[in-house]
Amino acid sequence: MRSKDHWEKVYSTKPTDSVSWFQEHADLSLDLIRATGMSKDAGLIDVGGGASTLVDDLRTDGYSDLTVLDLSDAALGAARKRLGDAEKNVRWIVSDITEVDLPAKRYDIWHDRAVFHFLTTPEQRAAYVRTVFRSVKPGGHVIVAAFAENGPLECSGLPVMRYRSDELHEQFGESFQLLAHCTEQHHTPSGKVQPFVYCYCRLRPS
Fold first, then answer.
1. What backbone torsions phi and psi does residue 115 show, to the nearest 5 degrees?
2. CATH code at position 56
3. Quick one: pLDDT band at residue 2, thresholds 50, 70, 90?
4. Domain total for the chain?
5. DSSP output for 141-197
6. Of 126, 116, 109, 67, which Cα lies nearest the Cα of 201?
7. Per residue in 3-49, pLDDT tens?
8. Is the dihedral angle over the CA atoms 96, 100, 103, 105 positive or is it negative?
9. Which residue of 28, 96, 156, 190 sits 20 to 30 Å from the alpha carbon of 38, by its own alpha carbon?
10. Containing structural domain, residue 37
11. How far apart are CA 57 and CA 37, in angstroms?
């Protein structure tokens, strides 16, 4: 099954608040985004945002230039329905992050919680990093969260990668200055605990 088919089936057959990655509020992501110190009109993209409530809380916080990208049209549809008329104020992109052609130097903040660890080949990860490098403004902020080294071996029936904080940063290279890293013990709706590591970087001005 192709990845897109897999995720369309997941979001078409399960309630969005029952999937293992569900968070009622993405508090750590919000804290890191606020810590960038960027203005509320900064260009922000949530990669793999799907049905996440992060976009709701960012709008409540006053952020106005928001883009949500996901492989699943069904996932984005759930978020758009939840937002109601406010969905018109968000840009929605249905695409594979390793293949998408995003605008160059468009985003001040790049956020990804739980996409990068699904990229299990060097080619996929290299394509992802090239997209970040191309579409984030010099001096822009990059926040990526993935399963920690003691995290699960698979998610939603798919294999995943696991990282120490230094290993996650190494995937991006010296062009990305590490500003902070932290861990999170994510409690799934079924009661399991999944350790995550967050890597917060800044794209060095060229």
1. -105, -45
2. 3.40.50.150
3. low
4. 1
5. EEEEEEEBTTS-SEETTEE---B-HHHHHHTT-TTEEEEEEEEEEEE-TTS-EEEEE
6. 109
7. 888 888 888 888 888 888 889 999 999 999 999 999 999 999 999 99
8. positive
9. 96
10. 3-203
11. 17
